[in-house]
Amino acid sequence: MNFEFTEEQLMIKEAARDYAQRELIHDVIERDEKSIFPEKHIKNLAALGFMGMMVDPKYGGSGMDTISYVLAMEELSKVDASVSVIVSVNNSLVCFGLSKFGSEEQKHKYLTPLAKGEIIGAFLLSEPEAGSDATHQHTTAEDKGDYYLLNGTKNWITSANSASTYIVIAQTYPEKRHKGINAFIVEKNSPGISLGPHEDKMGMRSSDTHSVMFTDVKVPKENRIGEDGFGFKFAMKVLEAGRIGIAAQAVGLASGAMERATAYSKERKAFGTELANHQSIAFKLADMAVKIENARNLCLKAAWLKDNNKQITIASAMAKQYSADMAMEVTTEAVQIHGGYGYVKEYHVERLMREAKLTQIYEGTSEVQKIVISRDVLKD
Amino acid sequence: MKILVLISNVPDTTTKIRFTGNNTAFDDSGVQWIINPWDELALTRALELKEAGGVDKITVANVGEKSTEATLRKALAVGADDAIRINTTANDAFYVATQLAEVAKDYELILAGIEASDYNGNAVGGMLAEMLDYNSVSAVSGIDLDGSDFKVTREVDGGYQVVSIGGPLLAIVQKGIAKEPRIPAMRGIMMARKKPLNINEPVEGIDKTQIIKFELPPPKAACKLIDEENAKEVITLLHEEAKVL
Predict the structure, then answer these.
(1) What's the topology of domain A237-378?
(2) B-chain residues within 8 Å CB-CB of A48?
(3) Could you report the per-residue pLDDT of B39-78, keeping only the tens digit for each?
(4) Residue A9 CB: number of other CB atoms within 10 A?
(5) ipTM, 2 dp
(6) For the domain bounded by B2-215, which CATH number is listed?
(7) Is there a contact between A10 and B189 if contact means CB atoms under 8 Å apart?
(8) Where are the domains of chain B?
(9) Residue A62 to residue B183, Cβ atoms within 8 A
(10) Is A7 labeled as catalytic in the residue annotation?
């Protein structure tokens, strides 16, 4: 077993850290407050290769491994989880899905500009009545011979307005239940697509989230991903890989809050000495450090398994559930260490805490991860 | 034109400085190493000059052990074309300049950071220019190619001086030479492994200095805040405590 990173992995981590600490930090509070989409940053990150990190350079990607991706996600998320969720959805849902299951034509037409970050992508699975339970898709994709006709509504779509390429999961054969589901590449400017209002979220406010309505939207046959009825399997495979990105995001939120809490506890004095000299604070920091390290190791193990083409279902569910719940706990403690300052925006930790909450909800709630994990634990 | 950028491998600027061996050596355990910030700016300017045309190749050179290769690899990832590592311990400025003189002869322009952020010696650039018998300008905050000459801006007391100077030139550069260092793109990071990193064995050289002892600066005294109504107390403190009046 080798716990050492390669020179390239460390350079990517440093590049992500430099970008986050030098650039993202400047306007992160304002973008959060006013819900401004980080267009300039996404463009810059694309130029550095962060939008298609794991895609084959043949299709415009950077050809990096999942370990590098985890390291980059952590560093970006320490400062700005709104930016990192846009990066995550584009990388681990959209680009990964197309790289792994797209046809050659689909890869040339859609994956290449997505991996280069010339356009961004969105993944449309959740529905008003189907979030965690993806087997019940109300959005329909009727087979009309040479095209599919899409009707229905998708909810909570990250980058819905900024993305130009959607991957949409819809039901073609309701009687076959989840085996009748398909996945499609849909261009956002197709006639019949409309967006709901911008969601006014608690955190990750700089990413644009909307519902998306489809009314008789024609999708060419060649835009179906994989065989007829492959959509549910596609979504599950993509999500289990995507969880690693969100788990790494949660680790970043926690370690970003931890870095701030550590620095603050060395500066701020109470009862005549620095906070860090009070055991109640020092022990809090020790607990936080152990939890972060645990979560990071779960993420890295899941990433390693993925890079080595091994089964990741359980490892990624464990990484996501533990990291997300840990991030909520650690960011809350970071606010506590900051006292009153932690409750105001200038000190960043309240935002990290608001953002951590979402990691327990999206791309499979902590409860859904526990279903996956417990089924494995209890299997005969 | 070929440019050589001298690269020092230094501890990250946030490193907590500690000493070992009865305060005779720097304790480098757990230290993160980076490109000396002034050298990084020099490299950035070299890349800008190359992008503007007229530069064929940028080489980076470092005197150091194998562990310094990560720093050179980063310079390659940012855009340098090749790298030279002179395989020896960088003991003192004269020794380092002696080693660099061996590889620096073929370059029309050499860029050296004004100092390295570890020992802040401010010496290698000047020594190397002397050894090579190159023209040299110090405290350079701007450099452009001007035909076969160079247009160099240097800081002088109270202002700037613009100098036109022929090559070969060794420019000792400082802040202002480039806006901010570049972040390597992933394509650059992947290409860095394929770019040549040549290892040269050192030539004979002598250390002209010897470190006897390190000492940390005295800790900063706490800041005293005085109410605005008590202006007189400020005068008294400046007079009696700080003894500056």
Answers:
(1) Butyryl-CoA Dehydrogenase, subunit A; domain 3 (1.20.140)
(2) 183-186
(3) 999 999 999 999 999 899 999 999 999 999 999 999 999 9
(4) 19
(5) 0.87
(6) 3.40.50.620
(7) no
(8) 2-215
(9) no
(10) no
